[in-house]
Amino acid sequence: MLNLILFGPPGSGKGTQAARVAEKYHLLHLSTGDMLREELRRESALGKEAKRFIDEGLLVPDEVIIGMISDKIDATSSVVKGYLFDGFPRTQPQAEALDNLLSLKNTQIAGVLALDVSEEEITRRILSRGESSGRSDDRDESIIRNRYQVYQNETAPVANHYKASNRFVLLPGEGSVDGIFNSLSEQIDRLL
Ligand code: AMP
């Protein structure tokens, strides 16, 4: 299996790039943000619990996220070539849980590809996405700044978990979608 993490702040282009990378390398794209929005849409118990965190730009509790990913891995690991995680892991406990879940399937994370984008560019991109995405958390500048702060405080340190084992690559996340996709592909080809 080839398992990768696309890492970076909200609005860094992970979703756009993940869809293309997953298609090129035949990986299952798992975005916890998309999975949560689907639960919200279905008005499931999980969706209702997650909503108040998402609306404020806060992280949904680890046990909810880990349970969701664990179920997904159990249901798919025998039929996929690998996973592309997008927006997950966002905390140290999530990173540790992911290691354990993958090791139960005799596999691991091959690499973490991080997109580097400035806070100003992120705010601009998310506000512009909010005009069409229908996401309320993309429309309010104070919630966007909050999400960025949460990223800095809780998620950015997760990089150290992977840097320690030389599995972390930082790439410029500003520029054309095609240019960024090409540099991601180059890095992934090195891991194959
Ligand atoms: P995203 O689409 O990745 O920007 O996620 C949207 C929102 O969903 C985030 O602001 C969080 O409230 C929640 N969320 C998504 N993924 C996670 C995660 N791995 N851990 C905690 N909360 C998450």
Oligomer: single chain
Which fold name fills CATH's third level, the topology? Rossmann fold
- Nearest-integer average pLDDT: 96
| Alpha carbon gyration radius | 16 Å
Distance between the first and last residues' Cα? 10 Å
Strands of the widest sheet, in order across it, are 2-3-1-4-5
Topology:
Blueprint lengths: L3 E4 L6 H12 L2 E4 H11 L2 H12 L5 H15 L6 E4 L5 H13 L6 E6 L2 H15 L7 H15 L3 H5 L4 E5 L4 H15 L1
Parallel strand pairs: 1-3, 1-4, 2-3, 4-5
The chain binds adenosine monophosphate (AMP).
Structure characterization notes:
With 192 residues, the chain is α/β, with parallel strands linked by helices. It has one domain: 3-Layer(aba) Sandwich (Rossmann fold). It has 9 helices and 5 strands. It has a 5-stranded parallel sheet with strand order 2-3-1-4-5. It is globular. The N and C termini lie close together (10 Å). The model has no long low-confidence stretch (mean pLDDT 96). The structure holds adenosine monophosphate. Adenosine monophosphate binds at residues 10, 32-33, 36, 53-54, 57-60, 65, 87-88, 90, 94, 137, 147.
Summarize the structure.
The protein has helices at residues 14-25, 32-42, 45-56, 62-76, 92-104, 119-133, 141-155, 159-163, 177-191; strands at residues 4-7, 28-31, 83-86, 111-116, 168-172.
Structural descriptors:
single chain, 192 residues, alpha/beta, Rossmann fold, 5-stranded parallel sheet, 9 helices, 59% helix, globular, binds adenosine monophosphate
